[in-house]
Records
---
Amino acid sequence: MPVRQPLLSVADALTRILAGVAPLPAQTVPLSEAHGRVLASPLKALRTQPPFAASAMDGYAVLHADLQGVGTVLNKVGEAAAGHAYIGSVGSGDCVRIFTGAPLPQGTDTVLIQEDAETDGGSGVTVSEVPDKGRYVRPAGLDFAEGDTLLEANRVLSAADVSLAAAMDHAALPVRRKPIVALISTGDELVPPGTPRRADQIVTSNNFGVAALVEEAGGFALDLGIAADTHAALADAFDRAENADIVITLGGASVGDHDLVQDALTARGVGLGFWKLAMRPGKPVMFGTGTTTGNETANEGQPKRYLGLPGNPVSSLVCTHIFVLPLLRALLGQPAATVLQDAVLAVDVPQNDQREEYMRASLELRDGALHITPFARQDSSILSGMAKADCLMVRPAHSPPMRAGDPCKIVPLRG
Ligand code: AMP
Ligand code: MG
């Protein structure tokens, strides 16, 4: 009698997938391409900002000690604008017309805003409100000083971060190389969207969603198209995936007569594990590592990683969330684990069997808590349900029946 293999848990599968993964090496990119990339090393300011004491308002640069109360008349000796410093001298009782961003002239320490001054049309400026000493002056280094470390390594660069890096005088940044993820759809029934097809064919959809998830996570998706259910077609696709860090096949993962991925990978010498996972959706998954070919240096000797995902559209997307995104995060030097959020069930759900379940569900914020309603139809072919879902509700294996109001855990699907 054949021995029935126990199902592998999702956690154990992830541990195997993430074993030995190290962050990819750095590359330098122009600042204009740095948004969303992962900073590879800490970034120090190459300059001080502002580099000089600067006016924060339009008005008159004055020496506070000269202000003898309302009615003091000062003598305007010049003008300072942004990019045009006043380099003359300022004597006792003098002031300088100044505009926002201009360096404060030597001999002054305060800005009298124009709303608090009256001019006589000539050089006389009368004080109508006395400012505090130092008012409306931004001291040198208010924002940061040269040598300050302002951005830490492994940070995903935000819009504000790239502005800050520019202000720090960096024209290019060291970022982690994007993991290259090759996608191979397999199946004789598949044709690209918008192309003629026979009555027994369907449109390939998985690759588009998986590519989008890969790119969102900071990877580079290399879609290698559709491989027919033949060894030659798969071998050719694997050849074209030569430079990839991760090769993902979509479909052909079961053990049917037309599921050839396992054989095709074994034939290439990929040390492969074929797993029946305790997971729904996504039971058949393959994982293996091969030698690096052609990408040794850029990959720092890490092996190419192969993942065979099931062809059902929902399964391939859920498996990408649960297995591929953590792998990408690890390659990018980010914490790999998927962060589960706390939520509350809005409806009853029956007990679960031995497979950890990722139920497509809607989410509603009520009374300060996220209320989750799993969809009635959970078949792994129902892509419209996946598109409609706000989150995946995670039901552990063997979980007992749950009631409306019970706490639960979710994987959010939308930012
Ligand atoms: P397989 O894993 O090849 O047994 O495929 C399982 C189911 O998913 C079958 O109904 C396939 O037609 C379907 N399928 C496989 N690959 C894709 C794809 N790229 N896009 C949409 N459906 C697919
Ligand atoms: Mg197939």
---
Amino acid sequence: MSVYGKLEEEKVFKDPVHRYIHVKDELIWELIGTKEFQRLRRIKQLGTTYITFHGAEHTRFNHSLGVYEITRRILEVFKGRPHWQEKERLLTLSAALLHDIGHGPFSHAFEKIFGTDHEEWTRAIILGDSEVNQILKKVSPTFPQAVSDVIEKTYPNKLVTSIISSQIDADRMDYLLRDAYYTGVSYGHFDMERILRVMRPTEEQVVIKQSGMHAVEDYIMSRYQMYWQVYFHPVSRSAEVIINNIFKRVKDLYKQGYTFKQEPIHFYSFFHEKVSLDDYLQLDEAITLYYFQVWQGEDDRILSDLCVRFLNRNLFKYTEFNPNQWMNDWPKLQELFRKADIDPSYYLVVDSSSDLPYDFYRPGEEGERLPIHLVLPNGKIRELSRESDVVEAISGKKRTDHKLYFPLDLISDNKENEQVKKEIMAILQIM
Ligand code: NI
């Protein structure tokens, strides 16, 4: 038996999305208190989205507690039902709480430049030398590995993994509701209480009673709308492009032997790609923003300019980008940028976003996403898009959006070469 039991008194967190988050287990309470989990308070859930929707300052800490709470409520519905084994409860709750523990500052831009992977760091934190690991080990020597396996979806009990990671799981339900709440948008809401009440355990995965189908349709539509209205917002992406290029410029300067006024010591191990767990855990958004602040004063014109842009929200402008025209215009545009003394490797960026709102199982595609299954009154199981016309209409349709980002102000301020400026503008307009 585990050394952990129930808390003498239940702890509660006030939460604007779920009203209250209830903690009854000593294990969960101790995990929340670790330095690795507290670090998530310094990582924003939506990266640069706050640049567009100023309310979106919520953190991975809020979201992780929310995913834990939804999971706890699902397990209350499952208690005593066939296929659900109560002995999996603490494992499922721990995996829910820790599923995002490896995220770093401005994850997207950061991972692209430094080649780190938050899933690998999640594994490293759970299995490595950390406070989280110390606590998990006290449950049993094999418990940390089991938590990691659930998060990586390799755990043999598929019902457990589907609660945390499938097309309708605790993670997605929390982030949709939470991101809608904090951005203040009117889409993204759906009736989670209703969905929780109609979730049923089977041997393979969570299924939904047919009577809850319309609530699930609403959930899928809200996911679709949130992607295009919030997550792929072109202005947030512009801010992300700039952060990306700040990291890129710093790395390039370091490799060229540039002498920094303010040595970026917190990034050294990332430049050398020899990052220890401690190095990784130290780097949060507070440190990152500190460097953006001081690099504004660097002598390197590009680094300084990009930092000033990000901090003062003087972002790149964008235009639709047609990849078919890429072949003709791209080299020409780069050449013109060079003539205008604007380095295209930092100031001319194509960014693409794509989403598949709902997909049924197609082996080998999209990470083999598990479809949503309905259980009919006669006990038969049907895949959702076969029952729902609404879902059928948007199933398997991938939408991709390409945008070209560039600093319009630098181009239009270029007084020296009017001809170059005219040519650039002409190309940008037809792209
Ligand atoms: Ni998450």
